[in-house]
Amino acid sequence: MASVVDTQGATEETTGRTSAPDSPSAAESADRPHHITHWRPEDEAFWERTGARVARRNLVFSVLSEHIGFSVWSLWSVLVLFLGPEYHIDAAGKFTLTALPTALGAVLRLPYTFAVARFGGRNWTVFSALLLLVPTALAGIVLQPGVSYATLLAVACVAGVGGGNFASSMANINAFYPQRLKGWALGVNAGGGNLGVPVVQLIGLLVLATAGAAHPRLVPLVYLPLIVLAALGAGLKMDNLTALKNDRRALREVAREPHSWVMSLLYIGTFGSFIGFGFAFGQVLQVQFHDQFDTPVKAAYLTFLGPLLGSLVRPFGGKMADRFSGATVTLWTFAAMAAGTGVVLVASHHHSLPLFLTGFVALFVLSGIGNGSTYKMIPAIFQAKAHLAVAAGADPDTAERDARRRSSALIGLAGAIGAFGGVLVNIAFRQSFLTGASGDAAYWAFLAAYAVCFAVTWTVYLRPRTGAAPRI
């Protein structure tokens, strides 16, 4: 072990050569390429000389891998549009096919979060990208008339591995960026990943418009070479931060933290809405407006628009949170989402497709903004607690490290619970259409949920109060 003295005079232990930590190598270990042993993003001199460039490189390839992960995760939101009468699956059965990968993706987000600390951000990104080959290849093999519904359920469920990529990617990028830039960085990372939803829908539209509904297997097969390229790029260009040590206590610590469960609820309202609507929107159009969407290709022309806009605005949600505070942006986002749901409800009653599309696209955009602002709140909560600990006499470096590892743990926990919101959205639509001729019951449920999230955000983070609770 070699001792390296940083520019602030502190002595750190590192493996490898003894170059200054502000060098262009970012103290990459000589005997372990792609392993960074010094990482101090809050040190502005280090950030300007080395940190920003290295962080951007990792962000770019993290986004690429996560983007394809989202495409694979939402693959069945497209494939169900191809399942015509010859597959003998009703609308309720199709909602189940889209709910299963959502559920598995939610479950996998917890282990994926901690895999970054256990195996390294670069190493896990390569492995998790290559794992996407399994559900993609299986879908390409089994999709043909005569396949059993049980087989389709199993293959659709496996696509949930794509949902886990988000959690590991976010936990990794969270460690690379300083607090002042986290809202923007996490927003870009998540927004670039979320773009995988509209992109796979556009690919589905292209296949429907050219090859026709009889060739659904072309959609997953397009992704096979892209998955290999994403894994290769991550292997060549990404880095492992050796400071991200595996700490199983972090999850137990955040599970005992009340703010963790508040943030998980808020993330159900934002990300759960985005991914649930993204998976269900095409089916909702076909079922509720079947007189205007009598063929899959007609629905496919519109399904990508909402997820596309919702993904593109996500970084702006983070950037707005950097400027105005995450809680403020989140509060007014939920108010606007409740208004958007009201528009959808009115449109449903009057069977007005233009008004319905306007309200639903607004919900996608607002959920994207809320995605960015809620993820800004997570590190801000623990940063505020670190400042309180330092003021009470705690060691600043220890408090900063604790804030970072707890932020990463909560990103995984909130991401997992929030993704279950997508399952709830699909279940709500399924039950609403089973018991009635429209999705009105589901829309009323969404309206109530956004009202609850608005009240919780104001009460916990913005209501005038005394005490040591952090204002986020």
Write the layout of secondary structure elements.
Blueprint: E1 2-5, E2 11-14, E3 35-36, H1 44-73, H2 75-79, H3 91-119, H4 121-131, H5 133-142, H6 149-158, H7 161-176, H8 182-194, H9 196-210, H10 218-237, E4 240-241, H11 249-255, H12 258-288, H13 296-303, H14 305-312, H15 314-324, H16 326-350, H17 353-391, H18 396-435, H19 440-462
Parallel strand pairs: 3-4
Antiparallel strand pairs: 1-2
Quick rundown:
The protein is mainly alpha-helical and 472 residues long. It is built from 19 helices and four strands.
Descriptive report:
The protein has helices spanning about 45-75, 75-80, 90-120, 120-130, 135-140, 150-160, 160-175, 180-195, 195-210, 220-235, 250-255, 260-290, 295-305, 305-310, 315-325, 325-350, 355-390, 395-435, 440-460, and strands at about 1-5, 10-15, 35, 240. The chain has about 475 residues and is mainly α. The chain has one domain (about 25-460): Growth Hormone, Chain: A (Up-down Bundle). The chain has a two-stranded antiparallel ribbon with strand order 1-2. Strands 3-4 form a two-stranded parallel ribbon. Helix 1 packs parallel to helix 4 (about 120-130). It is globular and about 65 Å long. The chain starts with a strand and ends in a 10-residue tail after the last helix. Residues about 1-25 have low confidence and may be disordered.
